[in-house]
## 1
Amino acid sequence: MFFRKYLAFVEAVFPWMFCCIFGWWMDRLFVEFGHRSTDSPICLHSDLQYVRWHQFVTATACSAQIIYSVRIRRTQFKREMNILGVVNHHPCLVHLYIVQAILCVAWGSVIGCLIDVSPWLCITFVNEYRATISATAIIVIIISLILERKLWTFTLDRAIQYDSKSLVI
């Protein structure tokens, strides 16, 4: 199986979520340089100006990251099937895609809760329970990686068995 280093952090947040984080810091930098259209800050925690816009962009970037990560995992799975010589069978990979989506959302939650310039900290519930949300997301990440490894191996084994049966018949 393709080895997933660092709890699949890079695959779940790069490049789309990193662009969001960069946008958060740029907004905060502009606010510190005096770029503010009103005197009253919308978000007292992080002093961001465009909170709703950043939240929308973050949700969109997380969706784009899921699509990007799913495409990478599909390519890796096909590569591994080619290495093993499976050519006649293309198994359903939806379960692997769902786990990849869970990983992206969980890492997005960790980033959204732990980075101080996050627009999600403007939501009172998230700000008050951010340690609990982050800890839960880390547990979900660990469980998802274990589940993904088992599903990956199961799907690959099933594809090999099906391909070998179709060659015999």
Note: The mean pLDDT is 87.
## 2
Amino acid sequence: MNWRILLILIPFLLVGAIGINSCESGFDPEYSFYRIPVDSIQVPSSLEAGQPFEIRFYGVVGTDGCHQFSRFQTVSNPDKIGVEVMGRRTAGDGIACADVMVYLEGRALEFTVDQPGTYILEIRQPEGDPIRKTIRVKES
């Protein structure tokens, strides 16, 4: 092979390889966030101040595999603990969602109340009234 052809061909091959590797796949999933409806909760009705406890949540996250639990959002006031259970749905072109129901299945939120007293635990729903439960926190 002629050395001149090889010297001209090598830069073109390098530029082509760099161009191919820098292309994006075009797959950019989009996410939407939503409040998950909670069917029920489990929480101790009495506990000690300063001791962590768990709140367990039950409900349907979504009707296909593109739905998943995302996070808990909490707001504490002097006598109220507010919780929102947030989900995330994956969407976009070319997204295939598994045909499966997704549940909270007792997903736990660990929480600590530092001061003794009576608190209202309020689980906010996407629609309708929140779930409310009274929690009594004793001196440790």
Note: The CA atoms of residues 60 and 103 lie 4 Å apart.
## 3
Amino acid sequence: MTAYKETRTFTHTEYGMTFTADAYTTDGGRVWRWAENNAVCPLDACRDYGIPCDVAAQGAARAAELDDFIKAYRQREAEATPADMAERVASARAAHGPGIVVVDVLTGRKFIT
């Protein structure tokens, strides 16, 4: 059985500009996801765009999605090769200059540019 999917277009006006985004729900409007990338809409976006979500359900879905992302990120970082790290050090050096300690706040990994 295919889940019911409702897609709607929402708008938000700020600073004299109007922004438009499509979002969808598959649970009758409790939780909404952006149609463009399937990510759970943040609560502030729901408020700003007038997306009629269930605040508790939306917040829980967003938190679960972020937890899953961080877990996957940490796993990928644990498997990083020396070449991966060399590229990150070079990028950080270009951005911050040489001799700077950079800390990945999600993994705690530190390196010097």
Note: The chain has a mean pLDDT of 94.
